[in-house]
Each structure stands twice: as structure tokens, then as C-alpha cells.
């Protein structure tokens, strides 16, 4: 009797170990399969007023043509995090173009980032981005009438300025970026606008967000802004140790995915 009990226990123990092993193999296989199918960035360049603008392009699987999104980086530069956002959007069915506004420079040091941002003029940034839109329109795998933009922090502000400068843009997602409230400028926007902001942001304040939304609504422009009351500036990027908020990041990402699906795919 004792031998039977011990035999049954050994069999159950072996079965559990085998189940764990097979589960691990399945998880690893799924991870490898996803990594193998994940969009790989391709370095591209295009002209702008005698300069050559550098960018990284990500393509979904398939022949297309696809809607496209211009991806605008934060004050840190064209970092791995921003490239990952562009790759993730490409997995969702968009050609994404992550434009390098800093000409190859990137940093994780706030003081250096501040200097890089100060050295970047609005004319040059918007010129690079509009050139990026023009480049996307030349590609046969892009649906030229379905181009949007997204940006974070500094890039969120420039995504809005791109919408002002480029009336063909169809959708813009602004993540805690600087907001324009000049009616003469906002009147030029033809894109639908989504915004995600931190209620504890001392740079882009709730008052700024409300003023922007009210002005857009007064002009009859589609706008959808959301404030996350307990969150500060830069809450989507883990590099921001004091303000990163995973739950609000997940919610704002879902909002952005639904927004682009509605505006660029329909």
C-alpha cells in the first residue's frame, strides 16, 4: 500500500514538472515567434531645405498600402523607448516614421536633454516633420490620405505644431505636450486630436488643457482630452522614475490605439 502511495506521489510530481517544462517551452516559443515577427527599424533619410533628415521606419507585415504615423520623440532624443513605441504601432498595422530632430544625439541626462531641446528651433523641428510627411506620401506602401502623428513631452507639442503646419494630417495624439491656444493657429488644424495629460503636471497644467480644449471646441474641431488626476508629467516613460505610472500608461495607450484605429483605418 505504501509503495502504491509513493508511486502515485512520484507520478504526480513528475507530471507537475512535465507540465511546468512544457509551459515554459510554450512561453519561450511564443516569445521567440513574436520577436521574429516584430517590425525591425530601417534607417531612412529625406531632404528638407538643403538638409538631409534622418529617421527610422517601421513596417507592418504584408504588402500594404498602410496608414502611417509620424512619431515625435521627447526631449531625450530618438531613444530606444521611442523606437519601441514606433515598433509597437507598426505591429498594429501602421507604417511608422520616427524622425530624429536632434541629428543623432540622444541622452538620459536631464541637463543635456534640456540643452538639446533649447538648441532645437521650432522652425527646424516642424520643417523636419513636414518633410517626413512628404516622404511618407511618396511611398507606394503608404495610404497618403491616412497619415497621423504622435508625440510625447516636447514631441507632443511638436505633433500639435505639425497638425497646424500640415492640414492633410488626419489624426494627432498629444501626450503631455505643450499646447497652443491661439485661435488663428488652431483654425488651421484639420486633424482629429487626442490628448493625454497628467493632473499633477506643473508644466502643462490642467488650466492649459482646459483652455486648449475649449478653444478647439469653439472652433468646431474634434478633440478628446483626458487628465489623469494623480499623475505628473512624463508618466508613460519608465525613465521618469518619480512620475511613471503603469496603470495610467496602459489606459492612455489603449485610448491612443482606439483613436488611431478609428481615425486612420476607417
Question: The biggest beta sheet, please?
Answer: 8 strands, mixed
Please tell me how large the radius of gyration is: 22 Å
Number of H- or I-type helical stretches: 8
- Unreliably modeled segments: 18-36
- Percent in strands: 15-25%
Distance between the termini: 69 Å
Helix content: 40-55%
Features:
single chain, 266 residues, alpha/beta, Rossmann fold, 2 domains
Write up what this structure looks like.
The protein has an 8-stranded mixed beta sheet, with helices on both faces. With 266 residues, it is α/β, with parallel strands linked by helices. The termini are far apart. It is built from 8 helices and 8 strands; from the N terminus they run αβββαβααβαβαβαβα. Helix 4 crosses helix 5. Helix 2 links the parallel strand 3 and strand 4. Helix content is 46%, strand content 21%. It has 2 domains: 37 residues; 225 residues, Rossmann fold, CATH 3.40.50.1820.
Summarize the structure.
The chain has 266 residues and is an alpha/beta fold.
Can you lay out the helices and strands and say which pair or pack?
Elements: H1 2-37, E1 42-48, E2 51-58, E3 66-72, H2 80-91, E4 95-99, H3 110-119, H4 122-138, E5 142-152, H5 154-165, E6 171-175, H6 183-186, E7 192-198, H7 206-218, E8 223-228, H8 246-264
Parallel strand pairs: 3-4, 3-5, 5-6, 6-7, 7-8
Antiparallel strand pairs: 1-2, 2-4
Amino acid at each position: 500500500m505504501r509503495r502504491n502511495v509513493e508511486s502515485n506521489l512520484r507520478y504526480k510530481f513528475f507530471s507537475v514538472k512535465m507540465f511546468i517544462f512544457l509551459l515554459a517551452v510554450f512561453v519561450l516559443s511564443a516569445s521567440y515567434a513574436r520577436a521574429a515577427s516584430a517590425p525591425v527599424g530601417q534607417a531612412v533619410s529625406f531632404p528638407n531645405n538643403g538638409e538631409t533628415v534622418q529617421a527610422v521606419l517601421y513596417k507592418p507585415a504584408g504588402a500594404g498600402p498602410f496608414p502611417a504615423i509620424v512619431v515625435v520623440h521627447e526631449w531625450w532624443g530618438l531613444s530606444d523607448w521611442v523606437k519601441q513605441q514606433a515598433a509597437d504601432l507598426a505591429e498594429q498595422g501602421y507604417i511608422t516614421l520616427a524622425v530624429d530632430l536632434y541629428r543623432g544625439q540622444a541622452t538620459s541626462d536631464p541637463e543635456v536633454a534640456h540643452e538639446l531641446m533649447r538648441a532645437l528651433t521650432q522652425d527646424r523641428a516642424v520643417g523636419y516633420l513636414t518633410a517626413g510627411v512628404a516622404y511618407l506620401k511618396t511611398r507606394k506602401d503608404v495610404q497618403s490620405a491616412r497619415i497621423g502623428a504622435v508625440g510625447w513631452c516636447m514631441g507632443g507639442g511638436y505633433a500639435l505644431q505639425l497638425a497646424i503646419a500640415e492640414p492633410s494630417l488626419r489624426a494627432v495624439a498629444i501626450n503631455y505636450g505643450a499646447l497652443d491656444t491661439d485661435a488663428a493657429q488652431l483654425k488651421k488644424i484639420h486633424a482629429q486630436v487626442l490628448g493625454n495629460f497628467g493632473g499633477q503636471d506643473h508644466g502643462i497644467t490642467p488650466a492649459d488643457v482646459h483652455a486648449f480644449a475649449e478653444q478647439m471646441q469653439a472652433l468646431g474641431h474634434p478633440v478628446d482630452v483626458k487628465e489623469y488626476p494623480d499623475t505628473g508629467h512624463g508618466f508613460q516613460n519608465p525613465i521618469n522614475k518619480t512620475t511613471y505610472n503603469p496603470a495610467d500608461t496602459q489606459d492612455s495607450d489603449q485610448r491612443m490605439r482606439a483613436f488611431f484605429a478609428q481615425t486612420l483605418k476607417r
